[in-house]
Write a structure and sequence with these properties.
Elements: E1 8-13, H1 16-29, E2 33-38, E3 41-46, E4 49-55, E5 74-78, H2 82-94, E6 115-119, E7 125-129
Parallel strand pairs: 1-4, 5-7
Antiparallel strand pairs: 2-3, 3-4, 6-7
């Protein structure tokens, strides 16, 4: 165990099957493995950290997620290299995922920040950052 590192993050999603298809592929590309699976959710783990996706109850689906409201803005993941960011960008595009800030990609975060930005099925922003 490493003191202070995130243990897990749990996200409620509007459509579990869409989210697990999206996140499962992406997280496997980053080296995560399937960790837990039950009727209402699924998780993936990398070392001591895991991400959990849970189906939102019908009664709470009336107000959709928006990253500019109070709460989570985005999740950012380390990439091993700029080449990996480029490879993943191509794979995302092949899967029909829109690249955010495409006019400034891969330097949308600034001239010293090499990353790809995109959204999951609920429009949670995801960032993959090269060292």
């Amino acid at each position: 165990m490493t003191h202070g590192l995130i243990h897990h993050i749990e996200l409620y999603v509007s459509d579990l099957s869409k989210s697990t298809a999206f996140w499962g592929w992406f997280l496997r590309e980053l080296g995560y493995t399937s960790f837990q699976k039950w009727e209402g959710g699924q998780s993936w783990k990398l070392e001591d950290t895991y991400l959990v996706f849970v189906q939102t109850e019908e009664r709470f689906l009336d107000i959709p997620y928006h990253r500019c409201r109070t709460g989570l803005n985005h999740l950012a993941f380390h990439a091993s290299s700029r080449e990996f960011v480029d490879e993943m960008t191509k794979k995302l595009q092949q899967r029909g995922v829109t690249i955010l800030y495409s006019d400034r990609h891969p330097f949308a975060g600034g001239e010293n920040h090499y990353a790809v930005y995109f959204e999951d099925p609920d429009r949670v922003k995801v960032e993959l950052v090269a060292p």
